Amino acid sequence: MNRHIAIYPGSFDPFTNGHLDIVRRGLEIFDTIIIAVARNSEKNSLFSIAERIDMISRLIEHDPRLKVETFDGLLVDYAVSKGARVILRGLRAVTDFEFEFQMAQMNHTVCEQVETLFMMTAPECAYLSSSIVKEVGRLNGDISQFVPPLVRDELLKKFGHN
Length: 162
Prior knowledge:
The chain is α/β, with parallel strands linked by helices. The protein is built from six helices and five strands.
């Protein structure tokens, strides 16, 4: 396994500036980050898997150190299949910690060679969540400071605000 590959998993519905912050800072630590869009998410998604992969792919297309893929099944099995030893997770606030801690412990129990690295989001992104962004966008609020322009445009189309 390569210590220089990290898996950054999530539903990314949509991909926010907080997600982008974690990816940018993660690239200072890892040679490659695979943004892994969860296929079996229990969340009721606004964007399809294909739409999310397309948006993220367009956001990262100029950086060969980044890849976007989808996965289902156990995250640690996916990480091992990609030669990654690290799962990268962003923490916004203490409220995220309990769930993320449980997941990290379970993943490590299932596969000891895969570690989870928690990275705190930048303070300006600490309150951001995809759910909040979708709600503000749905109500025709200005979401331009929360998501990359490409994602903003796709959200506006989805909500019929273009």
